[in-house]
Write a structure and sequence with these properties.
Helix 3 crosses helix 4, helix 5 crosses helix 9 and helix 6 packs parallel to helix 7. The model has no long low-confidence stretch (mean pLDDT about 95). The chain is built from 18 helices and 13 strands. It is of the alpha/beta class. It has a domain of about 220 residues: Rossmann fold. A 6-stranded mixed β-sheet has the order 3-4-12-9-10-11, with helices on both faces. The chain has a 5-stranded parallel β-sheet with strand order 8-5-6-7-13, sandwiched between helices. Strands 1-2 form a two-stranded antiparallel sheet. The protein binds pyridoxal-5'-phosphate. The site of pyridoxal-5'-phosphate has 16 residues, from helix 10.
């Protein structure tokens, strides 16, 4: 399969190249030239498969000109064997046709493990074959960093440097990163905020001279392989409630439009999905774009759902590329204007977006209220991100006869503040993390200075 850039100017790449590349050279994002489409019979025939077997069916068309079936099977099996639930992504029923899809049974208790556990293995496999070494650099406000570190800790050909804002991530999140004592893992605690961390990563991608010829790789959701792995659980959830014979709806708490974009792709690939709800917190650029045709940046607000605190949703561009009939020049023009001004879509294009997505923005008060309400109704404890999804689902639902599945993106133990504000008791850490607060930590505090960070990285990479 070939991958093309949303801005039409970068060369087409194969899977291996896309996996290692991150952003396209024209500033766009890579998408498959053509999606595999499955028939209803084919999807129905997958009903009895394990999660790993299903993942193989869905992922192999995206990678099979680069990775053999046998190698892919091993990597997928190992990835999902490491999850702490036999169903990998179990569904819980909250009420009639109201479900949550628990995506937090991976090692770091957030849905990012689904993709990053596989990504680390894929990268190592491809690097081994090519005889290359990769330096990963990423900025995190919490979940991405821990999931990426867990995903790469065993990679022989990867060094990973994760920047987090000093004293501004929760203690659980920090410890999930800093207690991984592998030789290829480096936590940089930057004396700045998350935007400073992100700026350093961007500047380093733009000018990689400090790496003396080594390549820099990305682990955020601009990396296509992350989106690819996330398509699988839409299929598994649908099959679990009677799909594909029955249509389903999904509500997805999202910031960067990554997870919901995977749902959109599942639909394009033949899965009967009647509704996709985009759920945001007060950082609501997606809601304003979808409901009001207003794509404009606004001031970042810190919320109780920090993993969705974002000003610009990178993956929205991937969906707009389809909406603009894959016209790279039009997307390039739109995104260039968006850098400096507010933009809106042509009315006919916006109409298409509205046919595909509903959206709703939820503030902190409503988030806590939803955690409290759902707990009172069912005894089930939601994390704040998932609560936003459930609230948006309840507000936007179009057909009560269709199962509405909210993606539960994190375990509530990761975000105790919201649970406590909802006047409930924060849950205990799961068994594989009970000694988290006693484990040794390793991190380096660096001043908010690009050359200091780059010097640290160039001194600590270990190409073999
Ligand atoms: C990363 C994250 C999200 C948002 O994911 P997108 O890729 O922006 O869709 C939502 N919830 C949690 C818990 C996360 O860690």
């Amino acid at each position: 399969m070939k991958y093309i850039s949303t801005r039409g100017q970068a060369p087409a790449l194969n899977f291996e190249e896309v996996l290692l590349a991150g952003l396209a050279s024209d500033g766009g994002l890579y998408v498959p030239e053509q999606l595999p489409v499955f028939t209803q019979e084919e999807i129905a025939s997958w009903a009895g498969l394990s999660y790993a077997e299903l993942a193989f069916k869905i992922i192999s068309p995206f990678v099979n000109d680069c990775i053999s079936d046998a190698d892919l099977k091993v990597m997928i099996d190992e990835t999902y064997a490491g999850f702490n639930h036999s169903a990998v992504a179990p569904l819980k029923e909250l009420g009639t046709n109201e479900w949550v899809l628990e995506l937090f049974h991976g090692p770091t208790l957030a849905f990012k493990d689904f993709a990053l556990q596989l990504l680390g293995r894929l990268m190592d496999h491809v690097l081994e074959k090519r005889g290359e070494h990769l330096v990963i650099m990423g900025a995190t406000s919490g979940d991405t960093g821990s999931a990426a570190i867990e995903g790469c800790r065993h990679s022989k050909h990867v060094d990973i440097f994760i920047l987090h804002p000093h004293n501004r991530v929760s203690e659980v999140q920090r410890r999930q990163m800093t207690t991984i004592l592998a030789d290829n893992v480096f936590n940089i605690s930057l004396e700045g905020n998350f935007d400073d961390c992100q700026e350093m990563v961007k500047a380093s991608f733009a000018d990689q001279g400090f790496l003396k010829g080594m390549k820099l790789g990305a682990v955020n959701s601009i990396n296509w392989a992350r989106i690819m792995a996330q398509i699988v659980y839409y299929f598994s959830a649908s099959l679990a409630v009677g799909g594909p014979h029955r249509t389903v709806a999904f509500s997805v708490p999202t910031g960067n439009f990554g997870d919901i974009f995977a749902g959109y792709l599942a639909k394009q690939m033949g899965l009967p999905i009647s509704q996709l709800v985009v759920a945001t917190n007060r950082n609501d650029i997606l809601h304003r774009a979808i409901a009001g045709n207003d794509m404009s940046k606004s001031q970042l607000v810190h919320t109780l759902s920090p993993s969705m605190d974002i000003m610009v949703s990178s993956n929205f561009e991937r969906m707009l590329f389809d909406i603009y009939d894959r016209d790279g020049a039009a997307i390039s023009d739109l995104m260039n204007r968006f850098r400096t001004e507010s933009v809106s879509l042509d009315p006919a294009r916006w109409e298409k977006v509205r046919e595909l997505f509903d959206s709703f923005a939820v503030d902190d008060d409503a988030t806590c209220q939803t955690i409290a309400d759902v707990h009172a109704e069912t005894g089930y404890l939601l994390d704040p991100h998932t609560a936003i999804g459930v609230k948006a689902a309840r507000e936007c639902i179009r057909d009560k006869a269709v199962p509405m599945i909210t993606l539960a993106t994190a375990h509530p133990v990761k975000f105790p503040d919201a649970v406590i504000k909802a006047e409930l008791t924060a849950p205990a850490l799961p068994t594989h993390l009970t000694d988290l607060f006693e484990r040794e930590e390793r991190l380096t505090v660096l001043e908010n200075d690009l050359s200091a960070v780059q010097k640290f990285i160039s001194e600590h990479v270990h190409p073999e």
